[in-house]
Amino acid sequence: MTAQLAEKGTHARVPAPRGPQPPSRSRAPRRERAFDDVPRWQIYVPLGLYLLFTLVPFYWMLLFALRPAGSTSLVPWPMTFEHFDKVWNERSFGVFFQNSMLVGVATLVTTTLIALSGGYALARFHFRIKNGFMLALLCSQFIPGALMLVPLFEIFRELRMLNSLGSVIIAETVFQLPLSIILISGFIKNVPVSLEEAAWVDGCSRFRAFRAVVLPLLRPGLIAVGSFAFVHSWNHFLFALMFLSRQERQTIPVGLNTLIGSDSVDLGALAAGGVVAAVPVVIVFAFIQKWLITGFSAGAVKG
Question: For 237-246, what is each residue's pLDDT tens digit?
């Protein structure tokens, strides 16, 4: 009797069949698309549009600089260099080029040396007004250079430095220093202090340890800071326009402005002058791009 009841209870718990069941579909884990899975046209089309947008103005400038005056061809053929001869000899662009190069190199050297010493002090020493000084450096980046033209003009006039390239070099260096000091300070913080301490134990002074241990490791950062100081001073227009009135002291940006007349514009000469102004910058970035990327990568994250 007990066995029969147990058998009935067992049969009662068995569910009745409901017909054929569909196979269960387990959701596959969502996989992110790898770079190799992206269709190539999604990469090349945006890059092609960007290059087209970037390179067309340069081609247009070369076209006006190399084709003869009065030509409407979209291809610079027959090619002529009369516009370059005109701006280099008749418009004194050789003198402007020399002045711009002097201002750029001097600004590069002075900015790098002063920023190196200031950045080392901020990275290695602790003093009471350190945070306030850093805040002042950051706030100075919000002041446009045009607001300082009149005070700087008065200062240089009292110092009898007007129509001198030294006035432009000082002004450019002063406006490049805040950001340069901050960048150099970040680069130096990435160099472990233990390397300098090991050099001190070996008998090196602080300056010798910095020169032998820290300075070689700062090469990418120094190149990044120096290149931006050079390019900014090479392209800057306001300081040279305000402080230099003599033609033999003017720089390339001011020289380009003299090619724009009140009634007409010599497009061929203006384009040739633009090419002359752009070539040094292109050469600089072509040679230092590897160091530039390495420098900004080193200063982006503190190790």
Answer: 889 988 988 8
